[in-house]
Each structure stands twice: as C-alpha cells, then as structure tokens.
Write a structure and sequence with these properties.
Four copies of one chain form a homotetramer. Chain A has 334 residues and is α/β, with parallel strands linked by helices. Chain A is 32% helix and 13% strand. In chain A, β1 and β2 form a beta hairpin. At the A-B interface, α7, α9 and α10 of A face α7, α9 and α10 of B.
Chain lengths: 334, 334, 334, 334
C-alpha cells in the first residue's frame, strides 16, 4: 500500500495499475494528505509558534493553553496601535493583530495604511513583545509582509487565491488561514494543503462564520466546524468571533462557545474607541469589554481542561524596534 | 404612547391618526410584541416548568440551572423507553423526550407508534418522575397529546404550521418550539408570537441547526442565535445538538458550546443501542456517552455562573401510572 | 425483480432475503417510487386537468400548451375577484388563483376571508368559467375547501406538513404542491410521494424560489430545478415567478425563463390595483402588466415548441353559480 | 447637486457640509457609481467588443445580438483546441474560451498548461478568427496574459481578489468578471467598480450560479440576477450555464432560460470528447450537443427581440499567427 502526493498529471502518465503486484489504484478519500489527521496520533495537534524569528515573546497556538490574538481591524496610527497592544497584553492576549492592507468591498473605502502600518506593527511588537499577525492579499507583497509579520493572515476572500497560497507556502512564516464565506470544511482543508504542499507546515485554520440566509448576524458562526476540523486534521483551529457575529455584544458569548467546542485560540478585534474606528467598528470591543471577555474566558477554558495562554503572567522583556532581518532564513523555497 | 396587539385589519379601519392628540401611528419595529424583551427587565427570563399538572417531578426551564431533556428519537417499545428514562435520569436529565408521531421525509419510513407510544411515555413518567416532551404534528391530535404530554414539541418542519400553532396556543401546556430549517430568528419569534397571542405563554424556543451549503454536518448549529434570542426575547432558549450536528461525536462539543453561549437547556437523543435505533441512530448517544456528556457539562455551566438542574440529586418520589385528567383545566381558550 | 412500496416497517418483518431465488434486497435509489419517471416513457408527462368536476372550462396542466394560472394573492372582495378573473381570462389565463386562508408570518397580519372567500371563488368561476386554485393549510379544512376548489394548493410552508399531505392525498382533487423555502428537489418529490401514496395521482409541482443569502430578490428562483424535475418525474412542473422574485418588474423575465427552461405552466399574482392589495402588493402585476407578460410569453413558448393554453381563444360558455355538490364523488379514500 | 467618486478618506477631510450653499452631504445609495445605470439612458447597454486589438473577427457583447463564447474548460493541446474552435465557430460561437491557468480546489489537480496554452490560443485565433477569452488568476500574470487574450476572465474565486481587479483595471483589455460563489449582486457590482475605477470600462458581468443548500445541481443559477443586474447597471451581462448546472443535460435549458431572461450572451464549455476532458467533463458538451443548443437558441433569442451573433454567417478572413504587440497601447494606467 503506497500513498502518493503531488501533481496527479504525472501519476496519470505512469501505468501503475499495470505493474506486477498492483491490484488497484485508488484515489484517497481525503485528498488533503498533509493536512489530514491520518497518520498522526489521534490527540496530536501540531503546534504553531508565533514570534520565534522576531525575538517577540513566543505565542504557541495548538498547545495546552488557549491563544488569544487581539488588536484593531486596521492599523490607524502608531499611537493607537501601541495603546491597543499594551491594553490587550495586559488583559491576557499573547499576539497582536492589525491590518496594513485591507480588502474592502468598495474601491472607495479605506484600504489600510500599507507599508507604514507594517512599521507601526514592528514598533508595537518591540514595545510590548507581542508577535504580530497581519493580512497579506497580494502575492507580490508576501516577501515584504513576511519580513515583518510573525504570522501571515490569509483573509476569507483569499482562501482560494491559489497563487497567494503558493507564495505563503514558500515562506517559513506561520500562516493564519481563514475559511471563505462559502467554503466547506473540506475546501478549507484543501486550501491548507496548498500551503503545506509547498513546504510550509505552520498553518493555523480559522473559522470566522459562513454566509447563510440569516441576517440577524453578519455571518453564521459554524461552531460545529471546530470539532469536525479537530477530527479531520492535526492543524490548530482558532475562531474569529468578531467577524462571525458582526456585533460587539456577540463577541464574548461566541468566544466562550468556541473554546467550549474545542478551539485552540481566538482572534478578536479591539480598538480604543470602536465608535470612531475606520472599519468594523460595530463588531469591535473597547478595552473594558475585552478585559471582561478575558476574565470570562478563563473558567470556560478550565472547564474543558485548558488554560488561557499567559493569562495573568508578565512579558519577559522589552524589545528594541530594530529587529534583525529575517528574510534570508525564512524564504527557503523548495 | 400606546401599543396595540391583534389583527391589524381592525386597526386599519380605525382612523387613529385623525384623533386629537395623535401625532403619528407607527408600526412597531418588533412585531413580536408578546415575545419581545421590551418591557421586561433586561435580565429576566420567563421560566417554563414542565410537569406541574401530571405530578411529575417539575423541570424548570429558564431558571438558574441548565435543564437537560433526553431520550430516544422515537418511542420503540415500553421497555426501551423505561430503560432509557432511568438511564438519563441517573445521568442528570430532568425530562424525557420520545417521539410518538414522527415527521418523516418519506411516506414509507417509520412514522412512530402513535397513541401506543403516548401510553408508554405516561408509564415511563410514572416510573421515573420525569416530565415527558413529545411532538405533535396535527392540530387534530393536540387535545389527545396534550392529555398526556408535559410539553408539546413543535418540530422544525411545523414551525410555520399556523393552524397547529394556534391550536397549541389554545392549551396551557408548555410548548417547545423548534426553529425551522430555513427560518430566521425573527420568524422564530413570530411563530412564538402565534402561540403567545392565543394565551399560552409557556413557550420554550429551540435552536436545532439551520440548512446551509455545508454538508460535513447535517445542519449548521447557529450558536449566535442563542445570544441574539436572549437579547430579543424573555422566553427561555434551549438547543438540540443531536439534530444540529447529525453525528454522535459532535453532540458533546455542541452541547458545551450551547451552554457557554448562554442556552437555558438542551434536548438530546439517547438510546440503549443507537446502531439499532429505528430513526436518527447516527446522531444518538448511548448511555455511557450521555453520562460522559453530562459530566463534562457541569463545569461549563459553572463557568457561566449556572448549575445543571438536579445533577447529582435524587428524584423525590415514584408516581403511579394513573395520572389525573388534566384536559379540563388545560384547554382554556380565550 | 420486484419493486415494493409502502411502510418499510412491514418489509423489515418479512425475511425476503431468505426466500428461495432471492439474491439480494436493495433499497431503490429513488425512494419516490410513484413520482419517479422510471417506468414511464422518457418524454411522458402526466397531465392534470383542473375543472373537470365543477363544470368549469377544463385547464390542462402538463400537455402541449403552457397553462397560466393568475389572480390575486388573497381574495379581498367578490367584486375585485370577478373583475380580476375577467381580466386575466381575457389576457389568456386559464385558471384563477385566490387565497381564502392565508399563511402569514405574523399572527396580526391579514389571514384571509376564509369561507366567504371560497364562495366568492365559486361565483367568479361561475361567471368566467375559470377553474379555481386556492390554498389549504389545515387538514380539518381539506373537505370544505375541496368542496369548492378545482385545485388544492399546498403552500411552501406546508410542503412537509405530512398530515395535510395525507389528507389531500385522500381526495381526488388536483393538488398544486409548492416547493418549501429550503427544500431540496429530492424532498419535494418525497412530499409529492405522500400524496401519490394515498391514491391521488393528480399532483402538479411548483418551483417558487428557494431561500439563499441573496437579498436583492425575495427568494432565488431555482430555474435549473425545472429540467432536473422533468428528468426525475412524470409529474407536471409549473413556476411561481411572483413569489420567486418578489418584485413586479421581475415577473415577466422570470416567467419567460421558466417557459424557456421547460416549465408546463405559471402561477402569477394579478390585482386591479397592486398598490392597495392587502398582501404581496410589491410583487403583483396590474392588468396591463399581465397582458403585456402574456403577449411576450407566446413567442417564447413557440420557441420551445409549445403554445400557451387557449391564448386568444374564447371561453365556451358561462356557468351559473349553483355548482352541483361534488364532495361525494371526490372523497373516495382508500 | 454634485456626485463625487474616489477615496472616501479624502472626502472625510473636507468640510463640505460647512460650505455656503450646501444643505447636506448624502452618501449615495449605490456606491457603484461607475457601474450604476443612473445617468445612463434606461435602455442603454454598454457594448464591449472582443478582438479589436488582435485582428480577430470582432465579437460584440451587449449589442442587439446574443454573443456566444465557447470552448474547452482547459486548453489540453493545440490540436484539440483548434478542432474545438472550428467546431464552435461553425455552430455559431463568436469567441473561444480556454483555460491556460486553472484554479483548482486541490493542489494536486491539473493546473493548466500555462504559457504554452496562451500560444495555442493565439494559434487557434489565427486559424479561426475567433477572439479568445482566458482566465487570469495572478496579478503578476496580467501583463503576459493581456498580451495574448482578447478578454481577461476573472474567475468566481477571484471576484474579490482586489489586487487582481486593480491590475486588470489598469489594462484596456475587456474583462469578463464572474460572480463569486456566495457574492451578492451588490458585491458583484462593487467588484466591477474596482475595474472601472482604474479606468477600464470594458467589463462584462457573468452570472455562473451561486452556492446554496441544493445538491442536485453543482450551483444554483440565479436567473433573476439577470434582470436585476440589467436594471442596476449599463454593463452587459452574460451567463455560464455549464458551471451553474454542472451537468451536460442542463446546459441547453439553462442557456435558453438565460436568454429569455435578458442575458446578452453565454459562455459554454465544449470539448471534442467530454468523457476524456481533464477538467469539468461532466458539464461539457460535445460538438453535436453544442450544435443542437445553438439551433434551439435562435428562436428563443428571436422571441425576446434579439438574434444570435453571426449565427449562420461566415468568418470574413483567416488571420496569421503573428499578431502585433498590443501591450504598449493597452497598459495605460491612470
């Protein structure tokens, strides 16, 4: 019995079925060979660590503790970013999110501060020790974003942007892969497989709500996708309760539900003043709301036998802004 | 400022706008006047108690404790029912579910044992003290089912069966109203309003998954509907993780997620031998699985400041089969 | 090779597999044995004729011609109904629709004129010769509605109201079965099977749009369901472009699309003054709009090798109001 | 009254509301300013002509005639492509489709022949005079694909790939923009706006089915989107019945429905031997099937007052392979 991965075209050219000793050639049921749990120990979860290359305080996703990533939808200024980074760290978050390049439905909407935002993220990391997670939308920007980010976020609209998946697969930077609005769990795993097949095994899956007929919420959080994914794949699974519900008052209950269902972490939108945020304000928490969420999360995590990463402990050090170049080490393509 | 309920036709005939002192006539934004939380204290939940008329041990839904209703999809025999009732009570369930009349997609599938099953439910109640919950599909059967059941279940396919809603609204028996497969939260509340408008205020809402494009699960549990409903209505909200996920291994994580998100209870399918169940076997728990689920539920309930109803305590008494007739008191229509 | 229909429970009790000469017992892939095209000639469509018992001018659905059913959403008065009936007949419609009992999402919305509306429908039929189609929602009303109607409409929300399906299956009155909002084509056929299994073979299927994420239209017309149904079943298939699109300006293009895709007929909402209609005004055509639609339909029907039933021809006679009682003949249950 | 387009950020910095003579600043309801029909004559459709730069026989989309684009899902060899091009031209197609770069759910599936396929497309155009339509997925490939293609197809998965939209917006090559699997009509128009806002007004919209709960078809053709789009935008609208239905026997009825509903054209998968096609075989027509479809289309087009482009007429000339370089003229970015 032999499993093969790779381009099926080549396989089609080889008369495997005609070889002596071959009874039949069977396409595997789970075409996501690398993402599949098969071959892994049933309870294994691959851990993905953010911050190893940048000297940030490492944030482990997929381990015993729940990893919370928090920060603004988009980076609006250095000051608001650092203020937010300090606040979320104090509340227990262990990584910082912030959009530099924003996918927006309208060409006339705010598209993010771009490269300037990347510098602000690096500065906030240096200040707080939090690894940074930021989205990349364009394969041409993967190299520059990967030069700063501790984790490359692939947004829901990019889940099947195959050239982009191939490009982030060519780095060794962790990838946070969000489920597409109408993607099945199977398609999410196939998208992860694109990254894995290029040699980058540091993939975190993220359920962020799917599009359904229901209009009371922005999307419908598919909470069952968490245990389904956990049984199908060894990759860690986190949840974005901010985009799923689309409303600040839903973030905490959805976050608790996600942890209770087995999620390995959360990514949450936090802003000093959600009412004035340039994007996603209605679903963004302010600092007291985020603090309350973190307080409420700990007992739920404990109820399922887990802790919340670093909740209550202190950052070990301050970093300087000048991070060493990490590109040469990172971009080892096959 | 005056709120009016009732047939809008009559209102159309009254020239309210022309009366002195009337500035404008405004249709209310939430047409579910009776179900709406408006006018209720923000944290109020109406409690609905099962078992008050039958002499069963009362099961409170919507109080401080989580209420768990469990039992087989359909009643298959007196023996299996009583065996299951004893097992689920021992594990902490406080009401017994069991279908007498089953809605089935195919006219050739098992449709339930009918009246015989109602007798078996009464006997199991007498034996265990558990109030019984069973589905009614036909307005002509409401009277006879209400003569036995402690709670009338309206199935997902009947959520907008308006003659049926009116009929159960005419009883004073608690109603467990399941969300339709493609019903919005708003439509669920309007369906509840049909029951409430007939004078029966004992309505429990039940999220049981909606139909989406995803095929990895039978339905998609809309876990966000729980906090949305809790903010919109004072009625208690429970969840059916069995139908939502459609697979036994998903029941426990979905049950935990539901409680973490604020649900007041659960309704779960349990059978002595799921592999031989006449319906829904693949999503049904056996006794050890149900016991494990209940064990895991208690800490999650505690994490959100609640207990699990009667978990660990003992039934107070054994009842005899001969329950007093309750019809005369119950069927007080307006 | 033997096909069996009926309660699978009985089959389970018969050891068919153990009989001599039986190799295996195989559940058929298409459980809608009676609705299935298998066994019918590939191009066969069962024709269902409306009006045979009432003395109305017969309207054939499923024959060479396209059958158009038109009229108001709900019967509002005798005068508006007759006016509408005359207008739609003049434009080429061959049956009259009109709701007497209306399923409404809100208990406070107009629910229809009930029995009075049935009398108005009979009078309009007597005046114009058009067979009447009207909805029945409650199994207790099937007998009285069947005493007047030439066709019993089962609304989308009732598609899986199994007691109701059984009840109309017990009559010999044609049934117009609308697809549920979230019903698959397979489930629609299973619902038809409920009626057929009771002995009433006069079933017309109706695609009326399904519920999706798209909000630009009320529902999403699943135009592909027409050829899928035509290949699966011998029953005639019509389309309701009024409910599918939910907007008057979409009715004509959707009607043309339906005919081009192979539909056997249409059911369309028409009102003398849509702006003042008591329900569905925004999707209702006025007389000139309906006339224009019918003009535009004829060449599309011709393009797919069909005509429009009776378009341009004259009604053969006027009927008196006093129709003979038809109940005794009709209600021959098995 | 002044309409403004562009980055809303700048607008926010200008105190327009404070200027003399300004009563209020109102965000327009339709944020797709350039795609919107507002300002255009109600019956206007912008025509987009394929083939003007390459010397191919021009194919007009959005004019009086229906434009049919046909060809294989993916280019598999020069011979099969030219054979197919000749066959579809003979049957009345006026442009050739063929994938060089294929988006595939699995990283192990056939991804297209790439640049070699572009050369085969140019050769087939030279041989038959048919303009070529091919997909571009990667912003880095826009320049090279635009150097060959007469029309750049943006696939459903790329509809909200904003860097890609910006890049094709920077060319002057016609763009065929497919609706995303779960994109609303509004989002499709906003995606078109990205291209238009960069200065490329040659956008053709394509409805190709949306993702719903129904599994009898690959997607659900949203035929109502055609008249909705035609009333919202001046851009031409075509339909892809091959991907919508996902089955060869559904292509012809869906094509007829699309034309009857007002579509300006069709894009259809045709292959010499669908059973051996490397992708999408089950939904691909062979030559006789495509010929029959075209025969059946003409009367439907006539029924809605249109013809089928060039149906029955002859190509005017043969082209040589050596097309002049068109890049310099095309890539005029703003």
């Amino acid at each position: 019995m032999i499993g093969c991965i790779g381009d099926e075209q080549r396989l089609a050219e080889v008369p495997l079925g005609a070889l002596a000793g071959v009874e039949s050639v069977i396409p595997v049921l789970r075409p996501y060979t690398l993402a599949s749990r098969e071959g892994h120990h049933p309870v294994d979860t691959t851990t993905v660590t953010l911050g190893t290359a940048s000297g940030a305080r490492p944030c482990v996703v997929g381990g015993a503790g729940i990893a919370v990533i928090a920060g603004p939808c988009s980076v609006e200024s250095a000051e608001m970013l650092t203020t937010t980074a300090r606040a979320v760290r104090a509340a227990g978050a262990r990584a910082l999110r912030g959009g530099a390049f924003k996918p927006r439905t309208s060409p006339y909407a705010f598209q993010g501060l771009g490269d300037a935002a990347l510098e602000m993220l690096a500065a906030a990391r240096a200040e707080t020790g939090l690894p940074v997670v930021t989205e990349v939308m364009d394969p041409r920007q993967v190299e520059s974003v990967a030069g700063v980010a501790d984790c490359l976020q692939i947004g829901a609209r990019s889940m099947q942007n195959f050239p982009l998946l191939a490009e982030v697969g060519g780095t060794r930077v962790p990838v946070l892969l969000k489920r597409g609005l109408s993607a099945t769990v199977h398609e999410l795993l196939m998208a992860a497989e694109y990254v894995l097949a290029r040699g980058n095994g540091r993939v975190i899956l993220c359920e962020r709500g799917i599009r359904t007929f229901e209009t009371a919420t922005r999307n419908t959080l598919d909470v069952a996708a968490i245990p389904v994914l956990k049984s199908e794949t060894h990759l860690p699974v986190i949840v974005d309760p901010s985009h799923a519900g689309g409303a600040a008052n839903l973030v905490a209950p959805l976050a608790r539900a996600a942890i209770a269902a087995g999620a390995d972490g959360l990514i949450i939108e936090v802003h000093p003043s959600p009412a004035t945020a340039r994007s996603d304000g209605e679903q963004t928490l302010d600092f007291p709301q985020f603090g309350a969420l973190m307080q409420g999360l700990a007992p739920v995590a404990a109820a399922v036998g887990r802790g919340v990463n670093g909740h209550g402990d202190q950052p070990r050090l301050r970093l300087t802004t000048a991070a060493p170049s990490r590109n040469s080490a990172r971009r080892q393509r096959r």
